Amino acid sequence: MIPKYPYYSYEEKCKQVPITFPPQHQDMQPGIESIMNPVPISDNPDYNGSGKLAGKVAIITGGDSGIGRAVAIGFAKEGANLVIAYLYEREDAEATKKMVEQYGQQCLLIEGDLRQP
User: Fold this and answer.
1) Contacts made by residues 8-14, CB under 8 angstroms, sequence distance 24+
2) Is 95 helix (H, G, I), strand (E, B) or coil?
3) What pTM was estimated for this model as a whole?
4) Which tens digits make up the pLDDT trace of 83-117?
5) Do the strands 57-61 and 81-86 form a parallel or antiparallel pair, or are they unpaired?
């Protein structure tokens, strides 16, 4: 089961109605996950890896945040060491690396735009 955010407050409209988190917008893309409030959920604490990727190395582009971060954590739980390529979000990439290392895997960060030759 994927964890869900709890409601952070309530408002009165003839009855108590939960208030969901507001949408977030960043003018620069890719966005910077570290400034989001609340920070997106990237790890499912209920999932335990089974070692299917033990001894493998995975290269993940965009693994510093969002879906890429979730994939990186999932691969680490399965036993893979990781190489994560990202554009300029160093703080987000370092946070992902720390999460990967919590699962006992190695993580190499490479900053750069892989679209450019």
Assistant:
1) 8/38
2) helix
3) 0.74
4) 999 998 899 999 999 999 999 999 999 999 888 77
5) parallel
